[in-house]
Design a protein that fits this description.
Layout (H helix, E strand, L loop, with lengths): L1 E7 L7 E9 L2 E7 H7 L5 E11 L1 E6 L7 H4 L4 H13 L3 H17 L2 E8 L3 H9 L2 E8 L7 H7 L10 E2 L2 E7 L7 H14 L3 E5 L3 H9 L5 H7 L10 H7 L7 E4 L5 H10 L2 E4 L1 H6 L7 H6 L4 E3 L12 H11 L5 H7 L2 H6 L17 E5 L6 H8 L5 E6 L2 E5 L2 E2 L3 H21 L1
Parallel strand pairs: 1-4, 5-6, 6-7, 7-9, 9-10, 10-11, 11-12, 12-13
Antiparallel strand pairs: 1-2, 2-3, 4-14, 8-9, 14-15, 15-16, 16-17
The chain binds zinc ion.
Zinc ion binds next to loops.
């Protein structure tokens, strides 16, 4: 098919007025001026989008799709308490519940124009559910609270692929996560990092998210002390920041660091030098009362940046456009082209999949969105200003239509109903806990 719009924003190249993207599933075949593309491919059907900007599908580099159903149940609370509630409800869910929850989250994501995620997964149901909705990317299988010598058993329990080949299925990569310094001990962090290196997959950690985490690492005290004593086997306060701690463990090189709110100048330099990049989740940080990441400092010091909504349990929605506007508020000097880059190609690069997604160029995966902006002379600014779940008209993922005229191509109601049942189960579990 040929997808046309008032503008095409390829990301790796200047915007094209009256542009078109030629899609032959699963990849992009051509990109250029609409008239020229129609002449070159006269037999292909045309989907026209007057008043729209055509862009690559967005990259939400940090989510927990499996938490979608339980979001409202968990509610809002100070971070350490909130974390305890999330753990309590998740213990009550089985594989089917997790699949239903992830399916709902994936549907919400795709409706908002997201076609790639960096997701924290709790088993193979999550990437499978996401793929059914047209959402792919890196799914980080997460461990916490176990001893390093229990890792193999735990990964088998999560049905984590046994070899490098199994870790990459089509467009899905199975990465690994050691949740955070307060929930995974030093030996476990090293062991998970090592396993990720052996499989050649990305490794992620939640790092420097809260004052509670800083107090634990720097002084061994605060609201996370008892949590760490229970979960982070072998942990003793290193007397430094979380970023420095993970660097000393030898687990920061090439690592995807999520949050990085409480980072000093030296941490920022370390992240720029060693990490794959930082995924900032500004709305989640604000909602959980953790403050704001130093976006401008990280940007100017050369840290590669990606953007994430985090889970629905700590955000209002899974709309990456709204997240982009929050990022813009945090750093007014950032250019709109860089902002869009962070939500597309740069996010993909942090996740290690920039050769496949994040831009509209021939050979890349045909992840294409049409967003209604109305007339504009600055399509990138218009996208950021007016993009939302409500303005996304078309979503194509791997060349397949997933949203048409603003509506998903699957029946949303049964998915929402199944998710609501999971929420009821989670609410019961929380009352009884
Ligand atoms: Zn997270």
């Amino acid at each position: 098919m040929i997808i046309t719009g008032d503008w095409v924003v390829p990301v790796l190249g200047p915007p094209i007025r009256n542009g078109a993207v030629v899609v032959r599933a699963p990849v992009i075949e051509d990109v250029g001026p609409s008239e020229q593309m129609r002449e070159r491919y006269p037999t292909l059907p045309v989907r026209a989008h007057p008043g729209c900007v055509i862009a690559p599908g967005l990259v939400n580099a940090h989510t927990h799709l499996a938490l979608t159903s339980v979001a409202r149940v968990v509610g809002r609370a100070p971070f350490p308490e909130w974390l305890g509630r999330v753990a309590a409800v998740m213990r009550a869910l089985d594989e089917d519940d997790i699949a239903a929850s992830a399916t709902h989250g994936a549907l919400m994501s795709v409706r908002a124009g997201v076609t790639t995620v960096g997701d924290i997964a709790y088993g193979p149901e999550v990437p499978a559910a996401a793929a059914d909705m047209g959402l792919d990317g890196v799914f980080f299988f997460e461990v916490l609270g176990i001893r390093a010598d229990e890792l193999r058993r735990k990964l088998d329990e999560l049905e984590y692929p046994a070899d490098t080949e199994g870790c990459t299925h089509g467009r899905t990569v199975c990465g690994l996560s050691a949740h955070a310094p307060y929930s995974s001990g030093p030996d476990l962090i090293r062991a998970v990092y090592q396993t990720a290196q052996e499989r050649g997959v990305p490794f992620v950690m939640h790092l420097s998210e809260s004052d509670a985490e800083s107090a634990l690492l720097e002084r061994g005290e605060g609201p996370f002390a008892s949590l760490a004593a229970r979960l982070a086997h072998g942990f003793s306060a290193p007397g430094c920041s979380a970023v420095e701690y993970v660097r000393r463990l030898g687990a920061l090189r090439g690592t995807v660091a999520v949050h990085c709110v409480k980072v000093a100048e030296t941490d920022i330099a370390t992240l720029a030098y060693e990490a794959a990049g930082v995924v900032v989740c500004p709305r989640s940080n604000r909602i959980l009362g953790n403050g704001a990441p130093p976006v401008r400092e990280m940007r100017t010091r050369g840290v590669k940046l990606a953007l994430g909504t985090d889970s629905l349990a700590s955000n209002d929605d899974l709309d990456l456009f709204a997240e982009l506007r929050e990022l813009q508020r945090l750093d007014r000097t950032i250019e709109t082209t860089r902002l869009l880059g962070i939500a597309t190609i740069e996010g993909a690069s942090v996740l290690g999949i920039e050769d496949r997604v994040g831009a509209l160029t021939p050979g890349r995966c045909a992840d294409v969105i049409a967003v209604h902006t109305g007339p504009t002379d600055d399509p990138v600014a218009a996208l950021i200003e007016r993009g939302s779940t409500g303005s996304v008209r078309t979503v194509v993922s791997a060349g397949v239509l997933r949203v048409v005229d603003g509506r998903p191509t699957v029946l949303a109601r049964p998915i929402e109903n199944a998710s609501a049942r999971v929420a009821e189960k989670a609410a019961r579990a929380l009352r009884e806990s």
